[in-house]
Design goal:
mainly alpha, Four Helix Bundle (Hemerythrin (Met), subunit A), 6 helices, 79% helix
Length: 170
């Protein structure tokens, strides 16, 4: 049963990631990202990380994606404002294949080095809500708050740009 859930979640995560890049409509791209994030949450559950899976669903697939959906719906998904770079349709797949080969070599090399080992030593309290809260609110408070401010500024910027575009068309 775990194997079926793993492969289903892995296919959903990969399909959602490809959908984010491949979709031309930004609204459908955001929906594909939601599928990707839910699939990652299922993979976290398989790793016995219920807190991280719940945070993935509540924070990313819930709050952040709702914000993205509203911004995309407000701004609208039109054609891109710029022309594609000449030769981009040929160069982009070649770069994607090169990146895939590079990442595959890196993953396989590190996996082969770890074949005869026991795995990492993890403390019993690692990943529980208390440890995560302590890290977020003590050690990483500044980056945590900076990320939230950046998300807020991005949403405000999208609304301002949409307002300017509506003024130009009027």
């Amino acid at each position: 049963m775990e194997e079926v859930l793993f492969f289903g979640s892995a296919i959903g995560a990969l399909g959602g990631a490809v959908g984010v890049v491949a979709m031309r409509n930004p609204f459908y791209s955001v929906l594909a990202l939601i599928v990707h994030l839910f699939s990652l949450a299922a993979l976290f559950l398989l790793l016995s990380s219920a807190f991280l899976a719940a945070a993935q669903v509540v924070v990313y697939a819930g709050a952040v994606m709702v914000l993205y959906v509203f911004v995309v719906a407000y701004v609208g998904g039109g054609e891109p404002a710029w022309e594609p770079i000449p030769g981009q349709r040929l160069l982009a797949p070649l770069l994607a294949i090169a990146l895939f080969v590079e990442l595959s070599v890196a993953v396989l090399a590190s996996a082969l080095l770890a074949l005869g080992t026991e795995g990492p030593d993890v403390d019993p309290g690692f990943g529980n809500p208390e440890a995560v809260g302590t890290l977020l609110l003590e050690k990483f408070l500044l980056p945590f708050e900076a990320a939230s401010i950046m998300l807020l500024l991005a949403a405000i910027g999208a609304v301002v740009l949409a307002g300017k575009r509506q003024e130009d068309t009027a």
